[in-house]
Design a protein that fits this description.
5-stranded mixed beta sheet; 16 helices; 6-stranded mixed beta sheet; about 425 residues
Length: about 425
């Protein structure tokens, strides 16, 4: 039987494991309560830079040795930075889980920030920024964050800018790490063929000397603003567009209502947007809705891309479909959306890497793991009245319309406002 266990060490580090009998692998990692939302303006991108530098050498391993040791046991090692959390994780066969723990602990707690490696990785990140800027369906989401949350860290790109990334020194990285990589901000999670007590003993040995934060790190509350932005690029065949609205925090009781709302509107082939925008009108190849939920706020949005001459029609149709969600959702649509979300949740439990990330994030956000049964109960409690109420809240917030490519932004504003959306 699968079982989730939690232990909190005296210094504040939380260890959460889930034993899944019958599989031969273990996914594990450290998740840190630190991301781009914690950065000062001049630090924009430093969370991501620090994550990259973890793989570039420690006091006991070179960058090559890190790669060789994990691959010698057939394992996989990676990391990622988000707005509110940074994760360092690995997947190995169960008999090699101690190797993964040792490497993960080493890269997280003992990076060296050698000058040669720092400069080399700076170049890598600058290339990553350039690649994002050259990719319309990547950069458009950075633009959306900036319009939705201007003058706040949540509105800045996770990768940082050319200017900020070019300015970071090893001392900057050490100071940021000292401030945020503290024991009370760290969760270690492991899922698969694991023994909780063995993992607690192992992680204790790696982390026993870590100390809690010297003072509470409180980020400013982000306030959604909204508006319009056009990144004009005449060389693109299509114009990419997002329409965003103020969403909900991941701690909001109505979060699961928003998830069902999004599924009905724009997730899957039976969704309203797919059927109306693609199947009936042939305006796009891809159209979908998405949620970005944070601890104090959130975004709800729609993404699509079409030829410039179809852009105004696309925006008008999408706006109309959003507005219809206030009064015309059918019981069969509600049921279908719930079934899709329930199925996605249950199938995700078969992937121990996904489960590991889920329970680590739950520990950071809620302070405890959230069972599938609890989530299923919340999904089941969503009603048509809740959908209608939430739809009204969304469509009466100020919309954000972002485009990358050719197209007349003024016409888009007129099309959206004509349907009834607010843009100021």
């Amino acid at each position: 039987m699968s079982e989730v266990k939690v232990t909190k060490l005296d210094n504040g580090i939380r260890i959460v494991t889930k034993s899944i009998p019958g599989i031969n692998s273990v996914s594990s990692g450290y998740w840190v309560d630190a991301g781009s939302v914690c950065e000062k303006l001049e630090e924009n991108g430093i969370s991501h830079f620090l994550e990259h530098m973890a793989f570039k050498g420690t006091k006991k391993r070179t960058a090559l040795q890190i790669a060789e040791e994990i691959e010698e046991v057939g394992g996989y090692l990676n990391a990622d930075t988000a707005c509110e959390v940074t994760g360092y994780h690995a997947k190995v066969l169960s008999e090699s889980q101690h190797v993964a723990s040792d490497i993960l602990s080493d890269i997280l707690f003992n990076p060296t920030f050698l000058t040669e490696e720092l400069e080399r990785e700076r170049g890598v990140i600058l290339q990553e920024i350039a690649q994002t800027n050259d990719t319309p369906d990547d950069i458009i989401f950075d633009h959306l964050q900036g319009v939705a949350f201007p003058d706040h860290a949540l509105g800045r790109p996770i990768l940082g800018t050319v200017e900020s990334v070019s300015s970071f020194s090893a001392n900057n990285l050490r100071e940021y790490r000292r401030r945020l990589y503290c024991s009370d901000r760290i969760v270690f999670a492991a899922v698969g063929k694991v023994d909780h007590n063995e993992i607690v003993d192992r992680i204790y040995n790696y982390c026993k000397d870590l100390t809690p934060s010297e003072q509470s790190v409180v980020s400013d509350i982000a306030h959604y603003r909204g508006g319009c932005f056009a990144d004009m690029r005449a060389d693109l065949e299509q114009t990419h567009v997002t329409m965003g609205f103020e969403g909900l925090a991941n701690t909001n009781p109505d979060y699961y209502t928003l998830a069902v709302f999004s599924a009905i509107l724009g997730t899957g082939m039976s969704s309203r947007l797919f059927q109306e925008v693609r199947e009936k009108r042939g305006l796009v190849y891809s159209v979908y809705s998405f949620l970005s939920a944070y601890r104090n706020t959130g975004l709800f949005g729609i993404y699509a891309a079409t030829s410039p001459d179809k852009l105004e029609e696309l925006v008008a149709v999408v706006a109309a479909e959003i507005l219809k969600m206030q009064h015309s959702v059918q019981e069969d649509e509600l049921l279908r959306a719930k079934v899709r979300l329930k199925s996605a949740l249950l199938m995700s439990q078969e992937n121990n890497s996904l489960v590991c990330e889920q329970i680590a994030n739950q520990m950071l956000i809620f302070g405890r793991p959230i069972s599938s049964e609890e989530i299923l109960t919340k999904l089941e409690s969503v009603t048509l009245d809740k959908i209608y109420g939430l739809a009204h809240t969304i469509v009466t917030s100020v919309a954000s319309i972002i485009t990358v490519g050719a197209g007349n932004a003024e016409h888009l504003v007129n099309a959206a406002c004509h349907e009834g959306l607010r843009l100021s």
